[in-house]
Request: fold
Amino acid sequence: MHRVRNLSWATGTKPPDIKNRPLPFMTEKNLTRRHFLNLVGAAGGTSAIYNTSLALGLMQETGPVATLDLKQAGRQRKKVAVLGAGIAGLTVAYELERAGYDVTIIEASHRIGGRNMTVRHGDIIDEMGHKQVCNFDDDPELYFNCGPARIPGHHRRVMHYCKELNVPLQIKANFSRPAYRHDPDKFDGKPVTVARYVADSRGFLSELLYKAVDQNAFDEPLSPEDVDRIRAYVRGFGALNRDGRYTGSERGGRKSGGFITPAKTFEPLDIESLLDSQFWTGFGAFTSENPDWGEPLMEIKGGNDGIIHAFAREISKPIILNAPVQAIDLKDDSVNVVYNHKGKREQISADFVFNSIPTHFMPGIPNNLPEDYQAGLAALTPGNFFKIGLQMRERFWEKEGIYGGITSTNQPINQIWYPSHGIHSQKGVVLSAYAFFAQCEFFEKMTPAERISFAAECGEKVHPGYTDYIEAGVSVPWGRMNHMMGCGTSWSSGLPWEDGNSQLREQYYSLLQQPAGGRHFMIGDQISYHSSWQEGAFGSAEFALLELDRRVRAESGEARKG
Reply:
């Protein structure tokens, strides 16, 4: 791997600037300061973060996993066509086969899994115009999760199926204080540990709050007891001294000593640079605060596609690959699906269809779905993500005391992720770029080799010598991936987790959850409140299965219990 010093060839354009764009939790209705302090004082940490996140709309409570208990198909053995072998499609097929349905999965790609994609030695990255073959060493521990990479414990459906299918999990270190925050324009362009950013930012802000209580600067008068409680809390929260001043803390790491010799702490970072660095308004600061990113997180041992292969082992009927759908014909008593397989036009007639084709492809597939249903599909806008994975010949980050976690940077690569598995082994795969939405265009204009060279140069500014450790690499632009051309959806051109145009959601969401003509079900994380997450896909499949079961039972005069 050669270092590239002149990057003017990259795109000819500057990377899109989204760092000053307000994030969703900055635009929702705020809690009163009094109520916020009550929450913090009562819970003192995680519970406050969780409840505040719910109040601000940061997460959707996923609720308990439903007991499906599907009615057995019996002698009728109705036929079902599942379009797409991603999480939602595989879940539907798995559950319906167990209930005795005749299920056929049709998948457009050469592989199953949809956006749950882990690449290893020899795997194909099917990017339009730039097909890549993964050139990592032939070692099962050297893999790259190109799609889902984190499993929160409160994503109950993911956890349920991992347990049911005996998919082994391990803890994933998502937040690491020894990792870095890097801003080329601050602190002489040198990376600073996350520990120092967090400790000093909270210390300075706590000092301000400690002083503010004397002025009763809240929405109602504070009693002397209130003042004492708040002072006690902020002293602990910000590591203030007895006078309520912040002078530095071991929370930011030790400069030296602390075991055999006295500990020496770092001088506090400059407060103006801290606040101006965008640390608290970027993704990096909230890797442990957002409930979907907060510890403990998990990942599947050996790669997150382990759950895909576990489903495949349980599904008896062969999955038809390389079979893009060409037409959907909804009839009163069936649904006909036309697809191309090995250059031949094939057709399947089914009693029910479960369709996880990305909604932005549906206008290009001839169909006779109801007009309002088609309008709802067209109202959804695809999102986009981009990742680079690099195989490193040596785990140099462990020499810096980093074992998992994420470094964030204001460079276009945004983030560097260090693997949580394989500690003290020789090599490892590092996520070396993670771009979101409009940022992805910057990388999509490059060739795969140019992307890796650019990521190497950015990594060099965080870890001197970074480039020399790189042995192999792959890049995955979901907006250019065959049969995908996007990642996640929203009801506007905004971020997938934003409600976007709430009027459109109110108009179409419930409609798309229901089966068109009673036979065509639209599924996937795209038909959920948790787009881009596997839990959304599982939830969508669960909802559709329960709706099918309700209708099947109603036909036989049997009411569903529960």
About this structure: The mean pLDDT is 85.
